[in-house]
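Appendix C: a fully annotated inverse folding record. The material below is reproduced so that readers can follow the format used throughout the book. The structure is listed first as tokens, followed by the designed sequence.
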């Protein structure tokens, strides 16, 4: 007799090009052919507050989240808050899908389903703010941080990651550096900079393969990238071009990379934008700790 697994499938119908919503019947059938029966939850404003209760009350073997990085992170936050120990699989269906890329999930929908069906799991680190918020892939502070949540959704759907480059270029005319203080467990860094990124993975926004093979998703450390002030704004324009071409930009003299398991970020300008996994985050100052191997995920 065939043994079936049960999965809670939580999807954002408005993510990306809305492929998952339009293909939902085929998705259910594809999983069923792989001996996985889905209970489907449509993620919308009426469901967000009930998500933890649904996760705790329904019967399933693992959870599948489908959406952009913000939706994927929201589902993960509820899993962690509810202390659910069952594996979490993701289908990246947003514009950039950084977390899905970081755990080697295929961007093609049905290939990702095949990967999920193999049930290969690993534990990965997460970032925890003292406010209780969590992030999976990225925290960004500074000049381009708001690009991910300010970029027009129709433009993102039409142009994909290119939309972020275009939005970033519009910021160059009034780019301004601010004084940052970054405290880690081993040092205090004071820099005049445009932006500070904290990453667990090689992808953020529209930037892919940032740190080559330097990143371990379960080492208890996040990589902090500081984009320091330059004398010639053309250097920042060139940086964006390097990003667009997928080149390693961390070798530039105005880029500094450090690793830390706990860190604080503050600035003289407390109005700077903050993003968590591409969504609008809290205000400065920030206190962050890395929770090692806290999330059990299905990987590619």
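Designed amino acids, in order:
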């Amino acid at each position: 007799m065939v043994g079936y697994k049960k999965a809670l499938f939580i999807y954002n119908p408005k993510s990306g090009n809305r492929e998952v919503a339009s293909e939902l019947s085929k998705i259910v059938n594809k999983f069923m052919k792989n001996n996985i029966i889905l209970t489907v939850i449509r993620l919308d404003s009426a469901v967000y507050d009930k998500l933890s209760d649904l996760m705790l009350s329904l019967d399933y073997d693992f959870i599948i989240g489908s959406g952009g990085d913000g939706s994927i992170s929201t589902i993960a936050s509820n899993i962690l808050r509810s202390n659910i120990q069952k594996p979490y699989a993701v289908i990246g269906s947003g514009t950039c899908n950084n977390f899905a890329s970081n755990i080697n999930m295929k961007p093609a929908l049905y290939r990702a389903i095949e990967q999920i069906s193999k049930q290969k799991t690993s534990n990965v680190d997460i970032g925890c703010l003292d406010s209780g918020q969590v992030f999976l892939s990225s925290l960004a502070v500074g000049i381009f941080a708001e690009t991910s949540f300010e970029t027009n959704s129709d433009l993102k759907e039409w142009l994909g990651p290119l939309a972020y480059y275009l939005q970033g270029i519009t910021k160059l005319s009034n780019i301004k550096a601010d004084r940052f203080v970054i405290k880690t467990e081993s040092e205090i860094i004071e820099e005049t900079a445009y932006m500070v990124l904290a990453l667990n993975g090689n992808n953020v926004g529209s930037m892919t393969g940032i740190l080559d093979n330097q990143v371990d998703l379960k080492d208890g450390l996040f990589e902090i990238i500081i984009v320091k002030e330059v004398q010639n704004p053309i250097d920042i324009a060139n940086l964006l071009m390097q990003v667009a071409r997928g080149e390693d930009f961390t070798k530039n003299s105005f880029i500094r990379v450090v690793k830390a398991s706990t860190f604080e970020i503050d600035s003289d300008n407390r109005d700077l934008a903050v993003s968590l996994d591409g969504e609008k985050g809290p205000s400065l100052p920030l206190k962050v700790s890395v929770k090692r191997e806290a999330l059990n995920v299905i990987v590619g």
